[in-house]
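Box 3.1. Reading complex inputs
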Amino acid sequence: MTSVDALIEGLSSVGYIASRRIATALYMAVNLQKPILVEGSAGVGKTELALSTAALLGLPLIRMQCYEGLDESKALYEWKYGKQLLYTQILKDRMGVALADAPDMDAAMERLHGMGDLFFSEPFLEPRPLMKALREDDGCVLLIDEIDKSDEAFEAFLLEVLSAYQVSIPELGVMKAKTPPIVFLTSNNVRDLGDALKRRCLHLHIPLPDAALEKRIVASRVPGIEEKLTQELVSFVQSLRTMDLRKSPSISETVDWARALILLNAESLETEVVKDSLNVLLKFEQDIVAVEPQIAELIRRPLA
Amino acid sequence: MQTALEDFFRALRAADVRISPAEAIDAHRTVALVGFEDRVLFKDALCATLAKSAEEVDRFDRIFETFFTRDSFQAAPPSAEDGEGLEDLPPEAEQSELARMLMDGDASALAQAMEEAADRAQVSQIRLSTQRSRLTRKLLEEMGLSEIERIIAAARKSEDARTEAAGLRLEAARKALSQEASRYVERQHELYAAESGKNLREDLLARKALNSEGGIDPVDQAMMQALVKRMAKRLADRYSRRRHVAWTGHLDVRRTLRKSMGYGGMPFDIVFKTKKIAKPSIVAICDVSKSVAAAAQFLLTFLYSLNEVVDRMEAFAFSGRMISVNAVLDEHRIETAILEVLKQIGFQQTDYGKSLEDFCEQHLDQIDRHTTVIILGDARSNYADPRLDLLATIQKRSRAVIWLNPEPESYWGQGDSVMHRYERFCHVAKQCNTLAQLERIIEDVLRTYIPH
């Protein structure tokens, strides 16, 4: 964490090949203690970046998947209703004994007030991901995945957590993190995020990688793959990306495909093998139909 | 470094990268952390703090390069091999720092001097392209041009051949310097003012009447299209997703009681009422006849953009007869779609009565009590029967009928316009002949707010 180069080195030791821009953004996030908003199309390694950072720093990873309708009680905390219920039962049983010798109503009330109110207290608190992250005293990596899927109200609720690393619980007061977690937010751009949220974050856009970077990624993710095959497959995928497809293959698809090819014992790209395994790479029937007749040509075409 | 950064923020803001004071502070902290020895690191780090979307990253890259790149200074004078140097110039030259720099061809010192002079001349405050020549002149004067001119004049008068030659050399260097200065000012203009000029033009366009004399300038067409698209996108972002707001004030007794059964009658799960926001359902009917031809293009563009966002939208176009244009809008790209619609039914004689008849015969079932009907047209029916009864039927079936008329209200009811008669059956009838008005009205509709 001392410099950007050290960070690139460190990330690659845990299997994440980071470009300079990615490493710089991460370096800034750690040093300025700001959350980092990672954007990019599906499968370019947004979530993977958080996982690798956690692995690199040896910190626990706390992950929260966002979806429409996610609210505080699922993200921050909830009361343990069952235990609270039991508690009231115990209270009822004990109450008679405890208050039996009180001479009058006022004295009984007095004693009741003196008993201490446990009903809304920490033992009855069920922490959810956000609170768990704030309560990790040695710090942790908090991954808020696909923030764009959540509601706007939830986004506003996150602001306090992200800027001050604290939460307010009406019954208990403010709870502040001892060590601020390293926060990653990922977004697929389903909707535009609010300016207030964006302002609190560092922004990182991960584009699809160029051929050289992709080759290194494949080599690192799929150990034991032949140099020649990597070269061919990366150049094939890269030329696919120049075509007008509904969903261009991203890094995760390239890696999956590389694994599939190894499983099929392919030593180099042949039209037949590619045809059989194209469904790993392309996720839409129209795309597969459009690419199939051109496979032979795409294999032969050298990387521009 | 602070002023340089502030200038950089200003340039970014001019290019539509929003930078708040808080972000500016972050940027300063960033610079304090990474320093500026490593250019790539400096750039990437600033980019992470300042640019907030992929487009902003692109703009950031462009501005960064323009702002922090200095071409090597080209005002180096012709070589001094034949020996005419500073000492050959008239005595005034000894005092002049600028003359020394020019004669030595000290490019970096000259560049430095120009930056300082630009600061004094406030070149970075440039707003309009017409300010360029004045600012160039001012910049040169701040650098000490008048001294140089005096020296050159003195050298011309001199008898000594060497002095005269030195004067000529200085003059050549001065010419190069003024070219450099005008390039400098040009770059500043590009940084701070080019975008604001564009914004101003867009602003004007948004307010320009679509049916004004001569229509929209062909030069502006492309910009207008972009503007419309952006408008629709903005509306879409705001309204395409939200379906219900939590309305946590009122207890939903029935559901709370039901949930409490699991806890032996203890109401632990408290349920609040939520309010559902119905997604807008829109039927848009667009007049594409001769009289509204200029406006029709943009109304169609808007329909097209809206069609991509609103799930339930039916679009119709008419002049003599009415047709459904949903299929056309779905299948074609925007430019061809509009041409296609205009080709099919555009520019004929308007017949509102006939068109309403067509609509009621074939598509009336698409209107229910959730539907908002938007009619875009000038209500000029060429003295044919306006069929008010049909509009009344539509009004009865729909949630609201909104009529947008590109003509100003004072024209309604004049000549063959039957706007006042139609108006009785509309919840809202408004003049709408600029993009800004159009956006406001559509926004009202999407909010499903119907003013009475």
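In summary: The CA atoms of residues 16 and 133 of chain B lie 26 Å apart.
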